[in-house]
UniProtKB/TrEMBL annotation:
<feature type="signal peptide">
    <location>
        <begin position="1"/>
        <end position="25"/>
    </location>
</feature>
<protein>
    <recommendedName>
        <fullName>DUF3261 domain-containing protein</fullName>
    </recommendedName>
</protein>
<keyword id="KW-0732">Signal</keyword>
Amino acid sequence: MTQLKSSFSIICAMLAAGMLNGCVAPDDPGPPVVDAAESMTFLEAGLRPEVLLFPDYMLMEDFELSQHGRIPETRLIGAGMRTKLGLRLVRNRFSDELLAQGWTVDKVEIGKQSFRLMAKNKGAEVEIRAVQGTGPTQVFLLYLPEPKPVFNPTIDH
C-alpha cells in the first residue's frame, strides 16, 4: 500500500510539473511500447484457449477467462477472469483448490471489496487478486511458473 501511495504521489508530482511547464504532445506518438505479438490475448466471452499457460485447476467452474498470456520481458503469466460468485466464495474456492493441489498459502489480505492471496508450490508462485463492485467479481491472476532446469552438458546426468 505504501508503494502504491508513493507511486501515486510521484505521478501527481509529474502531472503538476507538466502543467506548470506547459505540456506539448508529440506529433507522432511512435510505435506501441509492447509488441502486439507479445501482448496478452483477449478472449471472446465463454471461450477457453487450447493451451492454458497456468495450471488448469486455477480456471474453475463458474469462472470465465477474459484474457491470458505472457507478460513481455518476464516469466510471468497473467490472466483476467470474472465470475458471478461473491468475493468470499471466490477466496474460499481458490484457497481450498490451492491447498488441495499442494500449494502453501503465504499471505491473504482481505479488504472491504477485494482480496489478495499469495501462494507457493515448489518453485512456482501465484498471486490472485479479486475485486467486487456492482457487477461480476473480477479476478486477476499472476502466475510465475517453476523455473525450468538448465541442462549443462559438462555434468553427467
